[in-house]
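Project standup — Tuesday

K.O.: blocked on the structure for the chain from last sprint. Re-posting the sequence here as requested.
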Amino acid sequence: MNIFTWLSKIRSERMMRMEYPLAEIREKRKRVIALRDQSRTLKASLHGAAIRYDKDRVQTSPKDSMCEVMAQAIDLDREIQMLEGEIVDTIASLVNFFKELKPEEAKFAKSYYFQASTMAEAAEYAGIAERTAYRTIKRIRGKYYEIQG
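H.V.: unblocked you, prediction finished:
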């Protein structure tokens, strides 16, 4: 493994340590985008543009399955609303959690998790020693899991 592959691996591992809530938000956003695309496609198929009235021949009507397609589109819209609500709830819980931290802990955690800084960079940014940073991150994780259950 060359140095660039190793550094890339380290960087991706650092990004993964954003832990469950941030990864969950990212995955749910991806799911919402995919569901919106499916919903748009289904809704577009409901338009009557599929029948050409200028032709003198028998054509099948898209209304045969219109109810089923509409039901699928409604189900997708409900799932999108549910996922968006869960995303908002997760973000709100993170915001409330950061409000409960001491200012230097919050500054450190935001730098470490959201900006993907190294432990040393985040500690320097928050104005704490690197050795203190390791204890701080353990304390922050403990508080988070205590609050979230």
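K.O.: great, moving the ticket to review. Residues 102-149 form one domain. DSSP finds six helices and no strands in the chain.
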